[in-house]
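Ticket #4471: structure export looks truncated?
Reporter: QA, pipeline team
Priority: medium

Steps to reproduce: submit the single chain below to the structure queue and open the exported record.
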Amino acid sequence: MNFTELEKLGFGDWFERHSDSSGPDQFQLARVTEVHKESYVVTDGVAAAYAETTGKLMFAAESPLDYPTVGDWCRVQFLDDNSLAIIHGILPRKSILKRKTSGKKVEFQAIAANIDTAFIIQSLNADFNLRRLERYLVMVREGNIEPAVLLSKSDLLPPEDTELKKEAILETAPGVPVVSFSNIEAFGLEEIEKLLAPGRTFCLLGSSGVGKTTLLNNLLGADLLETKAIREKDDKGRHTTTGRQLLMLENGAMIIDTPGMRELGNIGVEAGIGETFDDIAELETLCRFSDCTHTKETECAVLGAIEDGTLSEERFQNYAKMLRESMRNEMSYAEQRRRNKRIGKFYKSVQKNNKKNF
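Actual output as written to the record:
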């Protein structure tokens, strides 16, 4: 096992402590760098190979989170002169970026794993939205990932207007790094590069058209990824990135590009909500009644803060909406899991009886 090459890919003490070294000698550690519909690309730092999962791993999966995703560390078996690999198991994840699948179905979608820092990108045009930013912050923090905010298209605004938007973000997310940049004028790129530490994994999050792919091309120093123009009538972007892949930068940092997200549904993200809205959580402890609904109660600290202007009503409404949504989806998901288990048990009992009859 070549630990030097694995360390360059981000394999550190945490993964060594949480990895099971038992198993056949032909199993090796490798990291997933690409996800396709029915296959993967993995690398051990020396060789890269197309990979598939074992039938056992697929059969044991209880949700999409049990399948490999970009950034995962896996135990694999390399075959055919390292041109093919079989994924036998996934190592525990240090962090996981996930969301509710789009649409009415209540299920998790794994976006990427083992990320150290997520760059949440909003452009300084019509895309700028503090409430959407709060949703990204909840998703990122729930996954045990450090957030940073990048404001693209700084060439569209006077510097003083950009600073006002930065101040608004810092009021919403104190302590989170905020960098404004322009892909056209190459402004702010050096400041972003300073955040990209070697051996660490980053990802780019944001709506379509905010400049994620162009930024990544600038960081890579080459136009390796396709870009598309946004629609002038509404500043909406078209999807450029359709898959997910982990790319190595020249300085040794790794970065994952993700498709633009129009829906940011949450399931069971109370921890992420609590960290993102810790100011509201603290106010709730000061309410007179422990079961305060923050609607009409007397001596409600939350309503008092809204009234005196120390808490934005829009921020509180976004907090309440996300909390309700998360709890509702979590209950639906739990019921769905119980139903699937009952169906699975019935299916196994039918198989068992059929074997007896034949």
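Status: closed, not a bug. The export was complete when the record was re-opened. Leaving a note from the reviewer for reference: The first strand starts at residue 27 and ends at 35.
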